[in-house]
Specification:
The structure is a homodimer. Chain A is an alpha+beta fold. Among the domains of chain A are: about 110 residues, no CATH class; about 90 residues, Rossmann fold, CATH 3.40.50. Chain A is about 40% helix and about 20% strand. Chain A contains 17 helices and 16 strands. Chain A has an eight-stranded mixed beta sheet. The longest helix of chain A is centred in the N-terminal third of the chain and has 20 residues. Chain A is elongated, with a radius of gyration of 29 Å. Chain A starts with 16 loop residues before the first helix and ends with a helix. Chains A and B meet through helix 1, strand 1, strand 2, strand 3 and helix 4 of A and helix 1, strand 1, strand 2, strand 3 and helix 4 of B.
Chain lengths: ~450, ~450
Amino acid sequence: MSVQKPSIPKGTRDFGPAEMARRNYIFDVIRNVFRTYGFQEIQTPAQENLSTLLGKYGEEGDKLLFRILNSGDAFSEVDFDKPLTPQVCEKGLRYDLTVPFARYVVQHQNEISFPFKRFQIQPVWRADRPQKGRYREFYQCDVDVIGSKSQVNELELVQMVDGVFARLGVRVRILINNRKVLTGFAEIAGAPDKVVDITVAIDKLDKIGLEKVKEEMALKGLQADGIAVIEEILSLEGGFAEKLAAMKRLFNGGSASGVVSETGLRGLDELEELFGLISAAGVSAPVSLDLSLARGLNYYTGAIFEVKAQDWEIGSICGGGRYDNLTGIFGLPDLSGVGISFGADRIYDVLTGLDLFPASLASSTKLLLAVMGADELRYVLPIASALRAAGVAVEVYPEPSKLRKQFEYAEKRAIPFISINGSSEMEAGTVNIKNLVSGEQKAFPRDAMDDILAFLQ
Amino acid sequence: MSVQKPSIPKGTRDFGPAEMARRNYIFDVIRNVFRTYGFQEIQTPAQENLSTLLGKYGEEGDKLLFRILNSGDAFSEVDFDKPLTPQVCEKGLRYDLTVPFARYVVQHQNEISFPFKRFQIQPVWRADRPQKGRYREFYQCDVDVIGSKSQVNELELVQMVDGVFARLGVRVRILINNRKVLTGFAEIAGAPDKVVDITVAIDKLDKIGLEKVKEEMALKGLQADGIAVIEEILSLEGGFAEKLAAMKRLFNGGSASGVVSETGLRGLDELEELFGLISAAGVSAPVSLDLSLARGLNYYTGAIFEVKAQDWEIGSICGGGRYDNLTGIFGLPDLSGVGISFGADRIYDVLTGLDLFPASLASSTKLLLAVMGADELRYVLPIASALRAAGVAVEVYPEPSKLRKQFEYAEKRAIPFISINGSSEMEAGTVNIKNLVSGEQKAFPRDAMDDILAFLQ
């Protein structure tokens, strides 16, 4: 076989030790917070039947599915001369965690005790054009409660977001809106059929500004007086109470159109309840009502969330909302759920940008036992075993080598302590340990494990 | 869209909460042991270029690769009427962790400090015919050191195996052999060209017995006197020292053929050194030389390992060995490595069979705060927050419901404590907690966090 220059497919990544340590740190923090709220982890297979995936992500999404050729038995019947029929390709790679979760809930409904509080941290695959920050394989981290309409679930998602970012040291802002309120906008703007157009337009407010949003709504056929209503809403100022009061007035027929929006009013009731729960429970991050928050996903029916880092510009690092019929397509209607997704890659970038990864992640090994010869090796092996039994990460340099080489290894691997033991230590039964950061060096009787452990702290 | 009955592809699995808790337990134990030896985690993408994968697993293996259709940009040019040319299919799913690791080492050789001690826990995909215990998607858990010929590495793998199974509570037997010794067998049997045939045959000794092994070797063309030599070897009894001495004699020309095997003798030297290191370091599981241990993989060049559970029949639960040229195919020759792979599914089955999973895994939530009404909900929310801040997994039942329903939920989720608070508790400022296992019930001032935590232990 000829020698190949190795590479990986466009848009995919290898994660080396340093990157993995940082990624695991993020996922561990998230997992631990989820667990204190009673959420349980599940995993679904990377491959799903194409019938499960197709038609769930729109036409664009269907194109971005990675399809897997039938293999094994089937493969022997697949000939590269035959036409590429759909029959040779019945499976695809998971595109997100939401659709497989809906499939899971329906398939396992008889084993699940509802409300079902689950989280899932797995890679997904999309055949998007790779570019900076956009990958063809990336992890999603989703947490959902399904089978309960209570807004205590929304509250807990907000609390978990708060807890995760507090532990990570990232100051965030949590933005909340409600899909029913967006429906209300369209109704009092006299265009109940234009909810999606209005939503898509105002979602861009941050990026393109009010004038462009108005232009876009006009292009979509919204009348001038309707646009004026939306403008009035988007210009509302003040805190939650002020905005709520103003919106109540507008939805109660107080807008230029005079239309009353029952749906909008129900959305406001939900928001009022949720903000009440949030203040009863106590959340450290600022939580605010953002009436321009829309999020593209049409399946949301209640609360909508977005989380932004206060000190790093990167767009939203979490997002989610309530949906009422996610499992309907798989035959289980009327199961309401609410969930939020943590953007692992963006959170990684924020922590990198703000230098918030703990310094301890850089060194995985505490002590290198240098090795001068075969006897010295046998001398240090039981010491290594004892330290490991005490939970300390220890490496034994695998072969007698020049000390310089062993020091270099310790340096490259950021190992903070080195132990060098020769014939004098062996005779005295001692262990000689040097702190490579402070330069301090000390000898210990080799069974003085407590003193050694204290020195390695 | 019509309603679909949901299912997953043949040979794949969903892992629900209970199964995930048990799987994570196994992986966490393994990870923690690896880390105390200074091994670092990496991850590679699920998709590799087909050129990386093809030809590495034999003809059979090539057929078992899952191939991915080009998608995205390319996909729009792929028409289901056009022929299925290799050009529309350039990627495949990872078949094992070894080849991607070799690719990784070569691709990142300038960033790596050798010896490189890595582990990797990720799923792999094989289009095998699904059957009991054989899946098309399953996790592998590999640990390797690359860039060091020292047998300290073999020692550490043995120590890590020992540490992992000690922590899991599984009594194991560690079997060791050496590929050079197997080469020696063929040489002193007068058939140096038949190493693979002899290896394959004696590997089946456990399953088919000596007579059948002899028949198979005869079928492969081994002469009767050669077979007699192999029979003499396989019939050797005694401990390591006895077998070693007997093999030294045979390899030194003491067999019926009188042939001296230099390679075999080098293999024995390696075994002697490794067993010496093992007794110097101390390992709790029995480690023995198994001269019939061969393992199919032809790339092994030195030590070979296999691990079996003593109290559960399931075949080997770990296996590995030393290889000298894994990275050669990707352009980096002469890099010696040694590794071992933990069979996650079999270890899971052993722990299930021997009932060794900790009981604590069954309940992820410690306390359910029942909810009787809106006021009671607001009363318990800060209590939930305080307990979670102390690291306790707490659930708040999300809506006021009949107590029976809330008790049922606690029971189904195996939550051991429930707290029921009504108007009298709210007036008194107390929290009423019941241990659902012992039946004990106690009331605490709601700020007596230490007493509450103690009761929940």
